[in-house]
């Protein structure tokens, strides 16, 4: 059984449908990318998985548990971590306090930050007392991912983690996500606009258009024809 399985999921904002009959299955240990032009429902899909958008019909199953109506805080304790677009760290808190917030979402709350976090993100150790808002965009993104990792997740959902970040840091983020996946066995689902990043990072892709999944498969099958049809601006 897939770790995350969406079946016929429909989501509306008020009376306006945004997702239509979405089916999506992500296996344990996979890295998957959700692709699509702006406004096709990618962020809404992630927000629906973590419980920030109400599902009108269909079902979401995570690790064999039906979670369609489960509150967001419980989904976090089940092992779903969400790193939103724009990072949403708390700018006036220190890096250390931002990291501690991540631990509060864990089912079994750790008493201290594991040194392992600084093996993945060595930069953070140098800035523990610094306000989060004073970090660069790339550093803030690393902080946001580290905070999500401290909830001890089974799956991490990342919404456009490379947005507005310089190429050298994008490369670091790619390598770190691969390490987290490989060394900790954490499943990763990334909403992304950069096709090259998706091809290099993920094993599986889903393409969305007008609120529906219109193509999916192994990343090796993400052809230029598909990119031109669904993703070219």
UniProtKB/TrEMBL annotation:
Domain ABC transporter: 4-233
Cited Pfam families: ABC_tran
One example GO MF annotation: ATP binding
Keyword Transferase: no
Matching PROSITE patterns: ABC_TRANSPORTER_2 (PS50893)
Alphabetized UniProt keyword annotations: Amino-acid transport, ATP-binding, Nucleotide-binding, Transport
An annotated GO BP: L-amino acid transport
Domain of life, per lineage: Bacteria
UniProt family annotation: Belongs to the ABC transporter superfamily.
Name of the protein: Urea ABC transporter ATP-binding subunit UrtE
Protein species of origin: Stenomitos frigidus ULC18
Organism lineage: Bacteria, Bacillati, Cyanobacteriota, Cyanophyceae, Leptolyngbyales
Name of the encoding gene: urtE
């Amino acid at each position: 059984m897939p770790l995350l399985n969406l079946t016929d999921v429909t989501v509306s904002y008020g009376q306006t449908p945004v997702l239509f009959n979405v089916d999506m299955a992500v296996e344990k240990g996979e890295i998957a990318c959700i692709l699509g032009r702006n406004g096709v429902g990618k962020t809404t899909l992630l927000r629906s998985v973590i419980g920030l958008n109400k599902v009108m019909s269909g079902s979401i199953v995570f690790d064999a548990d039906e979670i369609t109506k489960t509150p967001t805080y419980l989904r976090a304790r089940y092992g779903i971590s969400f790193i939103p677009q724009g990072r949403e760290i708390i700018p006036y808190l220190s890096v250390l306090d931002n990291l501690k917030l991540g631990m509060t979402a864990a089912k079994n709350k750790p008493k201290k930050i594991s040194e392992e976090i600084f093996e993945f993100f060595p930069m953070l150790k140098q800035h523990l007392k610094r306000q989060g808002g004073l970090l660069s965009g790339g550093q803030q993104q690393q902080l946001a991912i580290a905070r999500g990792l401290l909830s001890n997740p089974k799956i991490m959902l990342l919404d456009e983690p490379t947005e507005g970040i310089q190429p050298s840091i994008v490369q670091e983020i790619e390598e770190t996500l691969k390490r987290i996946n490989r060394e900790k066995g954490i499943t990763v689902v990334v909403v992304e606009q950069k096709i090259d990043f998706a091809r290099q990072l993920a094993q599986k892709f889903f393409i969305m258009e007008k609120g529906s999944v219109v193509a999916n498969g192994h990343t090796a099958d993400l052809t230029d024809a598909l990119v031109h049809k669904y993703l070219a601006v």
